Amino acid sequence: MLTWMLAFTAAAAQAPPGATTPLGYLAEMLRDEKRANPTLATLATTGDKDLTAVLAAMSRSGDKKRRLFAVATLSDLLGKEARPYLLERVNYDPVMAIRAESLARLIAAKSLTARQIADALKIPDEHVQCLAARALVDLGQSQAAMAALEKVAASKEPSAAAAAQMCLLGLGRRDHEVNLRKVMRDPATPQTTLTMLLHRIERQKIKAAMGLALHVAAGDDQPTRLRVLGYRAVSAVSDIAAATLRDAIASSKRMELRVRLLNVLAGRDDAAGHLKQLAAGNGAVAVLSRFELARQVGGPAATPVVQAALDLEHPVVVAYVLDRVGKDIDSRGNQADFYTPALARYIASVTPRPRQMSKEHFFAAGASARLVELGTPSAVAALKRLLARPGGDAVVRSAITGLLRSKTPLAGQLAAPLLNSPYDELATDAALALGHHGDPAAKAGLRAVLANRSRHDPALVVLASWYLLKIDKQTASAADQLAKIVK
Question: What is the dihedral of CA 426, 428, 432, 438, to 10 degrees?
């Protein structure tokens, strides 16, 4: 069973004994306070818009954690269509942090006009006001934001004040530089505040703050994530940032930092010469630099370079390659087929019979998902070969996990032959892959999961129940009924 994908729902404990129908099972899970939140989280992983009624009810829940979860999930699921639900939270939620999160997501989705953003300046919370003011600056409406920024900059709340001061610095107010230097160099400043300030430098391209960003970037005592944000901010404002990034990559002893900075460098238009210098060396960074240069050209000559990177088997390197594969599939489509042989070989190379699934199998599942997304004849043929391996070992399980992740019609088609697998776990995973698309062929397998629910992880039973409703075209009406249970 693919339990590592469902670990975050483990708190659901055992299934309720009385429910025999899909809707009855889900209803009982939601009525149980201990099982409700994991059940809602599992349902959200389906990405089914028919869940909107349930999520809307969650957004009005008396539990602020549920409301915050609903805001994020509605935004991810519906995009701009989430606007009415998020606006309701902006205008009426009693928790200002939820108002701020809702406003931030509306702004990120470009779902609000400048006038609507300006209306948020009236909300009596400095963080919300600062968020709205910064959004107005990004829209070129700095005059409308100035009064709010000045007010918040004088606040006694350090984080809100620093955010407003940084925005004002970007508008030419150099008088705030001294205080910002103190904030960004103070070891007691929360990482969340530094993160916000570095994002603002990058977004607003605040050249006057380059030294502040570089101070964080160069701090060996800072977490890798913050240092990367610092270098990204420097990259956004400096004409010599490519050389700065190259030197940091070459001199650092932290593998994760070096690889993540390579990602920043490779995204620059002037990266080629610096990548060639790094590629001339030895080690993982040199291999990844050669990979970056090869993927820009693509074609069969790039395949062995991809393979060399994956052969390192370093988790940070493999994650880097898979991220690049996804981007290239999005931008190049079938022309990214040069990745197929290397991805298939990587999946086939994982430990076939481990005591338990590990990180290598997680990455192999990611490689499988990329092959599904690519969907070329060679990618499909490679997946079919992997799924047809005898013995139902961890290689096959990793491959089918990739099908479950991708949630595309092709994934269901590839999983269909496994419905008759002698290995129950593979047959169940195949039923889930097909059930996501409402394929009636999955019905028997999903019914078996519900009937034998005490033998399965509750998260899996939740998915099986929802997909049974989907097959019978009952998810919309079921969501309306489940929404009445959410408190």
Answer: 120
Is residue 413 within 8 A of residue 437, CB to CB? The reply is no
Query: 435-440: long-range contacts at Cβ-Cβ below 8 A with a sequence spacing of 24 or more?
Result: 435/463, 435/464, 435/467, 435/468, 435/470, 435/471, 436/46, 436/404, 436/407, 436/411, 436/412, 436/467, 436/470, 437/409, 437/412, 438/467, 438/470, 438/471, 438/473, 439/412, 439/471, 440/471
List, in order, residues 6 or more apart from 216 with CB less than 8 Å away. Answer: 184, 194, 198, 222, 226, 227, 229, 230
Q: What whole-number distance in Å separates Cα of residue 376 and Cα of residue 428?
A: 26
Element (H, E) at 306: helix 303-311
Measured between alpha carbons, how far is 259 from 450 in angstroms, rounded to an integer?
Answer: 45
- Calculate mean pLDDT across residues 304-314: 97
pLDDT in tens, 352-365: 999 888 999 999 99
pLDDT digits (tens, 9 = 90+) for 142-176: 999 999 999 999 999 999 999 999 999 999 999 99
* Cα–Cα nearest to 213, from 192, 227, 224: 227
Alpha-carbon separation of residue 445 from 6, 131, 150, 430, 439 (angstroms): 19, 49, 62, 9, 11
pLDDT of residue 18: 58
The pTM score is: 0.89
149, amino acid identity: L
Amino acid 437 reads: H
123/100 Cα distance (integer angstroms):
10
Of 119, 114, 111, 159, give the one whose Cα is nearest residue 135: 114
Q: Tell me the per-residue pLDDT of 202-234, one tens digit each, with 9 for 90 and over.
A: 999 999 999 999 999 999 999 999 999 999 999
The pLDDT-based confidence of 368 (bands split at 50, 70, 90) is: very high
- Computed over every residue of the chain, the mean pLDDT equals 94
